[in-house]
Specification:
16 strands, two-stranded antiparallel ribbon, Beta-lactamase, alpha+beta, eight-stranded antiparallel sheet, 2 domains
Length: 396
């Protein structure tokens, strides 16, 4: 990339304020019209969308309201709870430590977290009675990264639960998860596991000897220039955070406490879904991803680690919340473009979030696309019409 183009990219991301800047007029018009339609129909209060090609921003569009009651409009500086879009970022942290020789994705989890020794498997369930047995093998980091560990999010009968009244740490939470029996033999099935991702965050803490959130700030967010990407937004950032809305009786209604505490009572940095961010911040991250783990002369993950993250790791196992999906290491992987993913190329990677946010990177087309909305109550955020229409426009 030439110096002129590099400067242009950062000027685009760094100097925009209340007005959105479009580099590709036709692309931006398509996206704006489609997203405005969802606002007009009362499906969402507003959105911020960004499409980039690694060198520059092709489209940055803001429509609708950040806060309908306060009459605050969406702007590039609007902050969103990106929920499970945090997961691939946790995966990047793990692969950085792989590159340093401090761990391997095939390590047993119990090597780094002894509380997982002796983990049991549910052999039979009869009402509230569980029959347990040892699994054929212990769980590995690869199992956690691909959601094939069997580690459940819910506590089965008789299992300890996390006491949210005493301000638990990430270490406290993971110790509770380690006492839960797994649901199936490791590597045999896919089941989305927030507990598994939280465990990876704790491993980052133990291996790096740094708090999980501090590690990501020092190794990713600060070097990439992502000042609004955080687990703990400041009062000023909270004021810029979009309100989350649900749709009831055909009308959008704000969700109580929708700007803070993505998981009620949780105050530790949640590796499975606790990040807040903006479209310009995320563009800097995905610019690095689309370039294969390196940007502006700095390599964040090695070629080998990046290849492993973006390669299908789950074989023929059915994964994800839409058809045709597989999993890499912490990234969703498009095996066969189908339905909502039909605009993407095979091998595209990305992830969604609980409130309808999405980010997908199509390296074959050389383009990434970020959709930021805050909508509760969607039957399936990964299969939303907002995603389908946006990605259809972004990747045409």
């Amino acid at each position: 990339m030439t110096l002129r183009r590099q400067i242009g990219f950062f000027l685009t991301l760094g100097s925009i304020s209340s007005a959105c800047l479009a580099q590709d007029t036709a692309l931006s018009t398509r996206i704006r019209e489609r997203m405005q339609g969802f606002v007009d129909r009362g499906e969402i209060a507003g959105s911020v969308t960004l499409v980039g090609d690694g060198d520059k921003v092709l489209s940055l569009e803001c429509v609708g309201s950040r806060d309908r009651e306060a009459k605050g409009l969406m702007t590039p500086e609007t902050i969103f709870r990106i929920a499970s879009m945090t997961k691939p970022i946790t995966g990047l942290g793990i692969m950085m430590l792989v590159d340093e020789g401090k761990l391997s994705v095939d390590d047993l989890v119990e090597v780094h977290l002894p509380e997982f020794k002796g983990l049991q498997l549910v052999a039979e369930r009869s009402g509230d009675v569980l029959t347990l047995k040892p699994p054929a093998r212990p769980i590995t980091l690869r199992d956690l990264l691909t959601h094939t560990s069997g580690l459940p999010d819910a506590s089965p009968p008789g299992s300890p639960t996390l006491d949210l009244k005493n301000n638990p740490t990430l270490a406290d939470a993971v110790k509770v998860f380690a006492k839960r029996p797994i649901s199936f033999e490791p590597g045999s099935r896919w089941a989305y596991s927030n507990a598994g991702m939280a465990t990876l965050g704790r491993i980052i803490e133990v291996v790096s000897d740094r708090p999980y959130d501090v590690f990501l700030k020092e190794r990713l967010f600060d070097p990439l220039g992502m000042p609004d990407t955080t687990f703990f937004p400041s009062p000023e950032q909270i004021r810029r955070t979009a309100v989350t809305y649900d749709r009831k009786d055909g009308k959008l209604v704000p969700v109580a406490s929708s700007k803070i505490a993505p998981v009620p009572g949780v105050r530790y940095p949640n590796p499975a879904g606790g990040l807040y961010s903006t479209a310009p911040d995320l563009a800097k991250l995905y610019r690095m991803v689309i370039a294969g783990g390196t940007v502006d002369g700095r390599r964040y993950v090695s070629e080998a680690s990046f290849a492993a993250m973006t390669r299908l790791q789950t074989g023929a196992i059915k994964t994800g919340f839409t058809d045709g999906m597989g999993y890499g290491l912490a990234f969703g992987f498009v095996r066969t473009p189908t339905g909502v993913t039909e605009a993407l190329s095979p091998g595209s990677i990305g992830h969604g979030g609980a409130w309808g946010t999405q980010a997908w990177i199509d390296r074959k087309k050389g383009r990434f696309a970020v959709l930021l909305i805050q909508r509760s109550g969607l039957p399936n955020g990964d299969a939303s019409e907002m995603r389908r229409e946006f990605q259809g426009a972004a990747f045409e």
